[in-house]
Amino acid sequence: MRRVVIGTAAVSMALSVAACGKAGDDKKSDSSSSSSSGGKTIGLLLPDSVTARYEKFDHPYFEAQVKKLCADCTVDYANAAGDAAKQAQQVSTMVTKGVKVIVISAQDSAAIKSSIDAAVAKGVKVVAYDRLAQGKVSAYVSFDNVKVGELQGQALLDALGSKATTKSKVVMINGDDADPNAAQFKAGAHKALDGKVDIAYEQSGLWKDTVAAQKVKAAITQLGAKNIAGVYSANDGMAGGIATTLKGAGISGIPLTGQDAELAGIQRIVAGTQSSTVYKAFKPEADAAATIAVDLLQGKSIDSLATSTQTSGSGDKVPSQLLTPVSVTKANIKDTVIKDGLYTVSDICTSEFAKACKAAGLQ
């Protein structure tokens, strides 16, 4: 992605290069867009199918951009189905096929290191996508993940309003520690929240709605339903489980954050059971990764694309392109995910949400 600006009405996204969440077992385990071998094939390895964005947006957007930039290039695609060992095998398989560039969103950023280094040793270029994998990767494309956490934390404070005091007890459900993004989201959220509210309970939800629900249930038992002022959830998937748990405990009207602008998350925002999410436009990210991948395949410099540097968990300095995330609340749904064409009003405003959509001014 060249140094261009791709906008939502909420913010202009300066493209200069970390989601999102990972999940467990998937029914969609392994699919391939093409199985060709040789010099004009780019591999795309995504971590799971449970997180809606990967199959619905990232994969098709990436493949379309590759085709746009290189008519005779093919994309060999596989999904790890939440299995780090499976993803390692997928890397090996692509190397054996002769794939020259692999774009990977790591299921486990540390566990994949040896596979990446083995691929690089055989002349393969590896691009870390959305999550900064360890090892000798050539480039990294993602969002400013600390900023994501800051947006989440600030949205929680904004939703609390006058209740945002050091006596207000907040439950914090973070992502999976195996995902390096999770630590950055957490750091950004703490930057916004520390000293302003009481983070009375903090646990990892492992990017799973079921685990997040269990953690919040434990928090309710520990703190008391009436004593919880708000819940920080690191992504929309976990927020779904949390919202169900809060409802079951008779808790309503408190802020609940999210991330990824999943359709279900947007619908919860409309309905008032989730207060915010973070929109990381999938097309600009996928386009940026595809552009870098094609340039690497063609032996071109990526210096004008990857204009910053990030340090991975293995200590490697990686040329990076970080995009800017956007906070979404009920007030700017029209100006973000609808305006960008991510969802239509009819996608969001199904019969279940028709009344809430009308009240929100969407219909």
Number of strands: 14
- Report the sheet with the most strands, covering strand number, pairing sense and barrel closure: 7 strands, mixed
Poorly predicted runs are: 1-38
- The mean pLDDT is 90
The oligomerization state is single chain
Give the terminus-to-terminus CA distance: 35 Å
Could you explain how this protein is built, in words?
By secondary structure, the protein is of the alpha/beta class. 39% of the residues lie in helices and 19% in strands. Strands 4-3-5-6-7-13-12 form a 7-stranded mixed beta sheet, sandwiched between helices. A 3-stranded parallel beta sheet has the order 9-8-10, with helices on both faces. Strand 8, helix 5 and strand 9 (198-204) form a beta-alpha-beta unit. Helix 2 (84-97) runs parallel beside helix 3 and helix 6 (209-223) crosses helix 7 (236-248). The longest helix is centred in the N-terminal third of the chain and has 18 residues, at 52-69. The two termini are 35 Å apart. Mean pLDDT is 90; it is low at 1-38.
